[in-house]
Design a protein that fits this description.
alpha/beta; six-stranded parallel beta sheet; Rossmann fold; 434 Repressor (Amino-terminal Domain); 12 strands; 12 helices; about 15% strand
């Protein structure tokens, strides 16, 4: 027969209610000695709490969901891992879905998460304006990440894309390079617009009279590969490029190699995201590091706050980014 909470209480010499306080971290305090005895009895008996009964009792499933646009971009894969680690540390199960950059697939996942009665949702939308009316109607707490407009009405956790992009471009200009060309992501995304603005601000501050060429493409190695070939085969003289994601930069490096363009001697490059994948390119990427561990920690804390207090006001949280120096900028 399965071990019950009453069995644990008898082995520890305490009441079943006190066992519950230990398992649920409250609502009443437990002395250190009694806690030790309960935990020892749990270990000796091999007791496992009934999660279904707990969910019914608390009206919570102790599960949260995360929806990302794709796994081609290593930033999303690394962020999902960091979020899972943070959720696990807080005794939550994480369900993960990928929209493959398809709005209809994203909506289908959102319906599925509602049906599974997740306690909360972390969303990086495949669209510029996420359709989360069904989540709102179900009163499921939501925190938007990465592509998160401030006026969404939901809590957001982001970095200052414009400031970080400006500093990245200023780093290239500090090496005496021409005004850097730009490989950007899909124009309709909020984060892309902010990175565009940072690139332009840096050029304006440097009093550059002409706007260098730019190519907008998918956040993928193929997108970066094709965009870099377009830039290198154009009549424009280019000796530096700001790339809006590490995923694109990986493809851009391949294009440079195929066309006999040496990085950083012939062309310097600074990217955005700061993924571990960029550490192992040749040369390694100089890149804006988003700080996924900090994003995951703040995002989970904000979501749990909203799970505990559904009516708490939405907050806009900004996580600090930094520039990681690699081998592509010519330092």
């Amino acid at each position: 027969m399965p071990v019950t909470r009453a069995d644990v209480a008898r082995r520890a010499g305490v009441s079943p209610a006190l066992v519950s306080y230990v398992l649920n971290s409250g609502p009443r305090p437990v002395s250190a000695e009694n806690r030790r005895r309960v935990l020892q009895a749990i270990e000796e008996l091999g007791y496992r709490p009934n999660r279904i009964a707990r969910a019914l009792r608390e009206n919570r499933t102790h599960s949260i969901a995360m929806l990302v646009p794709d796994y081609v971009n290593p930033h999303f894969a690394e962020l999902a891992q960091a979020v899972e680690d943070e959720a696990f540390a807080n005794d939550y199960v994480l369900l993960i879905g990928t929209a493959n950059n398809e709005v209809m697939r994203e909506r289908s996942y959102l319906r599925s998460f509602v049906d599974r009665q997740v306690d909360g949702l972390l969303l990086i939308s495949a669209a510029s304006s996420p359709d989360i009316a069904q989540i709102s109607e179900a009163r499921i707490p939501v925190v938007l990440l990465d592509r998160a407009p401030k006026d969404s009405g939901f809590s957001t956790v982001v970095i200052d894309n414009k400031r970080a992009s400006r500093e990245a471009v200023e780093h290239l200009l500090g090496h005496g390079r021409r005004a850097p060309a730009y490989i950007g992501g899909p124009r309709e995304l909020t984060a892309v617009a902010e990175r565009d603005a940072g690139w332009r601000e840096a050029l304006e501050a440097a009093e550059d009279t002409g706007l260098p060429p730019q190519v907008h493409t998918a956040f993928s190695p193929r997108g970066g590969y094709e965009a870099m070939k377009t830039l290198l085969l154009s009549p424009e003289v280019i000796d530096s490029v700001f790339v809006a994601s590490d995923a694109q930069a990986i493809g851009a490096l391949r294009a440079c190699s195929e066309l006999g363009c040496r990085v950083p001697d012939d062309i310097a490059l600074v990217a955005f995201d700061g993924t571990q994948a960029g550490v192992y390119t040749n040369p390694s990427l100089t890149s804006v590091v988003q700080g996924i561990e900090d994003i995951a920690r703040v995002a989970i804390a904000e979501l749990l706050q909203r799970i505990g207090q559904h009516d708490s006001p939405a907050r806009h949280r900004v996580v600090e980014a930094r520039l990681r120096i690699g081998g592509t900028c010519g330092c």
